[in-house]
Design goal:
- This protein has 372 residues and is mostly helical.
- Helix content is 69%, strand content 1%.
- It is globular, with a radius of gyration of 22 Å.
- 40% of the residues are buried.
Amino acid sequence: MSTVAHVLDAAVVVSAVAALAVTPRALRREVRPGRAGAPGPEALLAIVVALILVNQLAFAVYVQRVHGGSTEFIARYLPPGWFDVPRGNPVVDWFAAHTPAPGLLAPSVLRVQAFLELPLVLLSFAAVLRRLDRVLYVRTARSPLLPLAAVSYTVAFCAVEWDLRNPYTVDDIVIRVLSAVVTPPLLAWIAGREPDTTPYAPRPLVFAVDLWAYGHLMLTLYDSVLLYNLARLGPRLESTLTVLAVLVATTFVPRYEELPGPRVTALSHTLGRGLALFLVPALAIRYASSFGTPGVAAAAGAVVLLAAVAGHAVRLALPAVAGTAAGALVVLWFPAPYYEAALLPAAVVGLLAATATCAALDATRQPLDALP
């Protein structure tokens, strides 16, 4: 087994143990409303995505002007599927023709993105969590879970960097460590200024739509700009705009219900607890499944999942079966080219099935104390 695999396996175990130890206390933190004035995680996420797109444009210009349109200088160090840059694109050609010193764009090769990837991942998580429960978002972002996640993700990022070493690897590792230092305090600061911290019971159905939309956006970013495949973004622009419209529309949907059924409430609490528990080990588990030991990643994921459902196992047993079966059918019927592309639709359909089952059981008005 390689050193990288050992590092990722260790990161999985340590981050899972840390999450199990820290999360219960983090979820009990007192939350007070802050003063409005700071941008929320969604606004900062939009800025980070814009910076990544600008960097992709800079990279395309750099390749065209400095390397004659060839990406071989860097592509030979990385697996196939990277560096599909636009060719014959009028926007790129215009910028290339009007850039006076293209050599100054050299940092666009891997290094700028090395700084931005951690804020992208953590802000995406924060934005999704805020859609589910603003109180939980503030508790999580202002707890030790956030810096622990930054450390865990940076270790995973750097391990993969080392496995795919190239002339920029050392620079990238230093930059990633710097990003891990500055990102958590920024996110904690904006969470501390969240003006609305009124506790309510979230609606899993609305959250499922938000989860699908954010997941779709992240998968689009991954397959296009995060792998320097800016040329692939154009064909996906229409679906991306549609997803953005969905996210805007769901901001106007009532997100909370004052008297949800007991099983829907239990599902909401389990969702929040599960997201908080998976925050720290999530990326290590993902990369260990590809670069480390899949069995270690699966075992850690199972332990964290069991911890998430603790206390609600009986009342959510049937919804969990329904959700798991629905998600499994999605994976079987709609095979995907990579892990995340299969996981997203399975998770969304599974959540919808579990929510529908909870609502149906609540409609029977069977009291919880009658459950075995």
